[in-house]
Structures are given as structure tokens and as C-alpha cells.
Write a structure and sequence with these properties.
Helices cover 70% and strands 8% of the residues. Helix 2 crosses helix 9 and helix 7 packs parallel to helix 11. Strands 2-3-1-4 form a four-stranded antiparallel β-sheet. By secondary structure, it is an alpha+beta fold.
């Protein structure tokens, strides 16, 4: 097969169906950009989980005098010094516990003032209304139920709270957004495949005379089909390059510069360039293989001469 002939046929086909080729390029670019973005979002969520789950604590809040009057679990009165000592000792005996730290009512009040000092309610809160607590660092954040089961109904304990539950709501929202992006990507992918099939059909129909002559002189099916397949692959590759560009520019603009989220949201451990660069070969490979396979199966039906 002469490469020059195949390349010339590719150029002819792309020029004849320029509008549909542009539509294919745009559709492939958008669908693969969403595909790559979804993969990066999944990596970001997993990265955040690994970062924050390692920092979450279990908080065991102890009863105070105010709770004794309003909370059923504290009906026996405020926590005693002996109860605090027993709770701390039992916590340190658990295999799942890494560290235990105690926060007094005065320390809790100080932290409250630091965080909510500007709130109208801040002036009405006194240190004796704040709860003492134990902050428990677990070796495995998934083992929260071990601590909750052991201390939730204990005398002197008002409640056991897991900070991981708060993070689960955030990660649930992020995962929901990721699923929505994947659904949009699938719709765009279907549109792109339909455009590719229609483009190949139009191209094959417009050149049916040439392909008929080639068949009569003994050209193989692959020799006839190759220019059409390569046209689709080339259009897809242009879309893949555009999608890769969207991912690179998006990462650069949103995190490093422009919106500069890396500095504005320094509590979030953003994914690095290595994660972005690792997705680009997959995006480019998909941009070539997807149109080529779509064109191949379309030609089996529409290129019968």
C-alpha cells in the first residue's frame, strides 16, 4: 500500500466533509475532556480521603451540670473525676486507639471563642456550659463503631461523635458530581460515535465510484477501508489533543494560577501534575481507537460495492 495515496485520500475525505469533521473533533474533545476530568476527580476524592481520614478524630463529649438537667443520658449528673480517669484508661487499652487527648471546659471555651467570637451568641456562652471531651485518634478510621459501642451508653458520657461522618457527606457530594460528569460524558460519547458513523457513511457514499473501481481492479477490503478508518482516527486524534489541552489548561488555571485554589484552599491536598500527565496517554489512545473502531464497523455495512 502506498502511504502517499492513503494520505491523499485522507485529505480529500476530510475536506469533503469539513463541517462534520469539525463536529466530530468537538464532540470527541468534549467527551474525552469530561472522561479525563472524571478520572482526575476520582483521584482527587481518593487523595482527599487518604489525607483527611488520617486526621479525623473521635470525640467523646462528657456530661456537665447543664446536661444533667436537659439530657437524658446525663440524668445521673455531671461526669466525676473518677469516671474521667476510668474512661481515659479504658480508651488507652483499646487496640484500635492510637492516641488520646483531653480537652477541658476552659480549653473548649477558648477554642469556641477563637472560631465563633464574632457570633451574637458568643457573649452568652460561659466556660461552665462547655463540655469536657476526649479526642481519640484511631489507627484505622473505619473502626469508629468499636469506640462508639464501648462508650456511647456509659455513665458520664453525653455523646460519641465521629468526624469521619462529616467528611462522608462532603465526599458523597463530590462523588455525586463525578457520577453526573460521567453521565454527561457518556451522552457526549454517544453523540460523537453517531457523528463518526454518519461522517464515514457520507464519505463512503461520495466516493462510491472510486471504491467500486478499486474493487474491480482487485484491491483488498482493507486497502479500500484504510483511508476511511484513518480519516476517523485522525479526526479523533485532533479531538484527543484538544481534550488533553483542556485538562492541562484546566489544572494550570484552576489550581496553580488563575483561580489559584492551591493557595486559597490550602487545607485541600490537590492532586499533582503527575496524575494529570498519567491520564493524557489514555485520553489520546481512546481518541484514536474509538473513532477507528466505529469507522471499521460502520464500513462493514456501508462499503459494500
Amino acid at each position: 500500500m502506498r502511504a502517499q495515496f492513503v494520505l491523499s485520500e485522507i485529505g480529500v475525505g476530510l475536506r469533503r466533509n469539513l463541517t462534520m469533521t469539525i463536529a466530530v473533533v468537538v464532540s470527541v474533545a468534549l467527551s474525552l475532556a469530561l472522561f479525563g476530568g472524571s478520572l482526575l476527580m476520582r483521584d482527587q476524592v481518593n487523595n482527599m480521603k487518604g489525607y483527611w481520614y488520617d486526621k479525623v478524630n473521635v470525640s467523646i463529649f462528657l456530661c456537665n451540670k447543664a446536661d444533667a438537667e436537659s439530657v437524658a443520658k446525663c440524668s445521673k449528673g455531671a461526669v466525676t473525676a473518677q469516671q474521667k480517669k476510668d474512661i481515659e484508661g479504658d480508651l488507652k487499652k483499646l487496640d484500635v486507639v492510637q492516641t488520646v487527648s483531653y480537652e477541658s471546659a476552659d480549653e473548649a471555651f477558648k477554642h469556641y471563642k477563637e472560631q465563633f467570637g464574632d457570633s451574637p451568641m458568643a457573649g452568652s456562652i460561659t466556660p461552665d456550659q462547655m463540655q469536657e471531651s476526649f479526642r481519640v485518634k484511631l489507627k484505622d478510621p473505619e473502626k469508629f463503631n468499636v469506640v462508639a459501642t464501648a462508650f456511647a451508653g456509659r455513665d458520664g458520657v453525653q455523646s460519641v461523635q465521629d468526624q469521619k461522618g462529616i467528611l462522608e457527606n462532603l465526599f458523597g457530594l463530590l462523588n455525586g458530581m463525578n457520577v453526573a460528569a460521567m453521565l454527561v460524558m457518556l451522552v457526549m460519547l454517544v453523540v460523537a460515535l453517531m457523528l463518526i458513523v454518519n461522517t464515514v457513511r457520507v464519505s463512503a457514499f461520495s466516493r462510491r465510484r472510486e471504491t467500486g473501481i478499486m474493487r474491480l481492479v482487485g484491491a483488498s477490503s482493507f486497502y479500500i477501508q484504510a483511508p476511511f478508518i484513518m480519516e476517523a482516527a485522525f479526526a479523533g486524534l485532533m479531538g484527543g489533543v484538544a481534550a488533553a489541552g483542556f485538562l492541562v489548561v484546566g489544572r494550570y488555571f484552576m489550581i496553580d494560577h488563575g483561580l489559584d485554589l492551591a493557595h486559597k484552599l490550602n487545607l485541600i491536598n490537590f492532586i499533582g501534575w503527575d496524575a494529570v500527565l498519567a491520564k493524557l496517554p489514555l485520553v489520546l489512545a481512546a481518541s484514536v481507537l474509538m473513532p477507528a473502531l466505529a469507522a471499521f464497523f460502520a464500513l462493514r455495512k456501508y462499503l459494500k460495492v
